[in-house]
Design brief:
Length: 547
């Protein structure tokens, strides 16, 4: 497919003037599609949406959960996931990012065939979002195209240059990353219209705080950004993309060096740069100033059958195993490397290229043994580690500053106390209680797992913790059966009579009543189980404080 005009013109700007193989032109700002010009109001709204965990269906995942500036735009969390064979602990395992516990279209917990009632893990490691604005297609396989279609209407919203917008509408409806199954954009926009923006975040950045001071609701923020208060999937994508286009990580030592400061790189880093641009041949795919050719290559990392990569999108067998060439800007901050996340150090990456890859199936012919000495490999690593790191990114200062997530601070998280009571086969029921308990939460839910399948269960709720020695069915419990208590009965899912398969969910919206802020309530699950002491297996007690 011919490169769209907007990208052909941009490539010319990106190329700059080459001197001794090094681009003197530093990284320019990314281009805006004509349909979505960047404005300050739109970008700050997109920044809020990017870091608001309320965009997910259980209030536990934001775009910024998996993409943190100080981690080079990637995910500081490293979670193993079964690979192509679906079995953990085998050679094809990958490292991905944690998403949500699988939930059905009603937002009730539903065991996953691989992850059960634990958080699902993406099959590919999170790429950086800082340089995403410079690519004509996004995701590792390029499935987010340049042409952006409105998710609600299917019409063309951006003819070319809209890969950021195409990518932005994927995770909020992904039932692995941020959503219950069959989540609709209507559900997402209705939720945003009702919640308090950034309710779960803390340490708000100055631009976010200023915007909220005058526009404290999402409809008000959309009014400022778009001229009317309507919240739509298209506008959500436009705002998030505008925020990402405001991020230009072009203040690295390499940028200062190419601008004429000979002291910006130390002697070891300069030696590494000379190898990078010369004998090591890195420029063939990581051309400056983006340090990516923005194309797709199979570098011989893993057998192609484990992940077909670009072929999934194009259907062309010649593309099997190909993945997008990432930008190397801020690569030294990333905790893992490659789409599999299989390397944890840059030296491992350079060693991989030095040996010419590991698998020959459809490997790019440019991936060949390099014959670099250990010293030379160390020099390349030194250049990549510091020479391409923007200090603003590493320190998370503007424009790479961000709020803190509830994921990091534990805001609204349940705390647990007391001892559970095991049931049939010795299996012990456990809480599913990741959703923050906050006033105005429209989708607050808790659940139970690892219980007796098909059993009757009670969720006990109390405003007071019970006194020592209180029992139900002769079993000591943590929750008082006071007039302020209530029991919510459900029947657990899972195979009847089989220990460990039982699971259940209780959902409730929490009223938006300021008087509830600071109120504490306690909970415990009771499962009717003849294999348990006293006829009931139980979870531990849980304490929730509304905020």
């Amino acid at each position: 497919m011919p490169t769209p005009l907007i990208h052909r013109l941009y490539l010319l700007a990106l190329a700059g003037v080459l001197v001794s193989g090094i681009a003197r032109a530093q990284l320019p700002p990314p281009p805006d599609p004509v349909e979505n010009p960047t404005t300050a109001a739109k970008a700050v709204l997109g920044k809020m949406l990017f870091f608001d965990e309320q965009l997910s269906s259980d209030d536990t995942v934001a775009c910024g959960s998996c993409h943190r500036p100080a981690s080079g735009g990637s995910d500081p969390r490293v979670a193993p996931a079964p690979g192509f064979d679906g079995l953990p602990g085998t050679t094809d395992d990958t490292n991905g990012s944690p998403g949500i516990i699988r939930s059905d279209p009603d937002n009730d917990f539903s065991p996953d065939s691989i992850f059960g009632l634990g958080r699902q893990i993406t099959q590919r490691f999170s790429p950086s979002f800082h340089e995403a604005a410079y690519f004509p297609e996004l995701f590792w396989d390029g499935r987010a195209p340049s042409q952006f279609l409105d998710p609600d209407t299917g019409r063309v919203s951006i003819a070319a240059g809209g890969a950021l917008e195409s990518q932005a509408v994927g995770p909020p409806v992904s039932d692995v990353e941020m959503a219950h199954e069959a989540r609709s954009w209507g559900q997402i926009t209705a939720k945003l219209a009702a919640v308090t923006p950034m309710k779960l975040a803390s340490a708000l950045t100055p631009d976010i705080a200023a915007a909220l001071a005058t526009s404290p609701t999402y409809p008000a923020l959309f009014l400022v950004a778009f001229g009317s208060p309507g919240i739509t999937s298209e506008r959500i994508a436009f705002a998030i993309a505008a925020y990402e286009r405001s991020l230009v990580p072009n203040q690295t030592p390499w940028d200062r060096f190419t601008a004429g400061d000979p002291t910006a790189l130390n002697p070891t880093e300069r030696a590494g740069l000379n190898l990078f641009t010369g004998r090591a041949g890195c420029l063939r795919c990581h051309g400056t100033p983006l340090f990516s050719d923005r194309l797709f290559h199979n570098i011989g990392l893993r057998p192609s059958a484990e992940d077909l990569g670009r072929q999934i999108v194009t259907g062309n067998p010649a593309d099997r195993g190909q993945m997008k060439t990432p930008s190397l800007r801020n690569v030294g901050l990333r905790p893992r490397f490659m789409h599999t996340g299989q390397f944890s150090t840059l030296r491992q990456v350079v060693d991989f290229y030095n040996r010419g890859g590991d698998f020959a199936d459809n490997r790019d012919p440019r991936i060949v043994p390099l014959g670099l000495t250990p010293l030379e490999r160390d020099q390349i690593v030194a250049f990549l580690q510091r020479g391409l790191t923007d200090p603003r990114v590493a320190a998370e200062t503007a424009p790479f500053d961000r709020p803190r997530l509830a994921l990091e601070t534990g805001l609204g998280a349940a705390t647990f106390f007391g001892r559970p009571n095991a049931g049939t086969a010795g299996l012990t029921p456990r809480w599913l209680a990741d959703s923050p308990a906050h006033v105005g939460a429209p989708e607050f839910k808790v659940g139970v797992a690892d219980a007796l399948g098909g059993a009757a269960a009670l969720l006990g709720i109390s405003l007071t913790a019970g006194p020592p020695g209180q029992t139900i069915g002769g079993v000591p419990v943590s929750i008082g059966l006071m007039p302020t208590s209530a029991f919510i009965p459900i029947v657990l899912g899972g195979s009847s009579g089989v220990g460990g398969e039982g699971f259940g969910t209780v959902q409730a919206s929490i009223p938006s009543a300021p008087g509830l802020i600071g109120r504490v309530f306690f909970g415990q699950w009771f499962i009717q189980d003849t294999g348990a002491l006293g006829g009931f297996s139980t979870t531990s007690g849980a304490r929730f404080e509304l905020f």
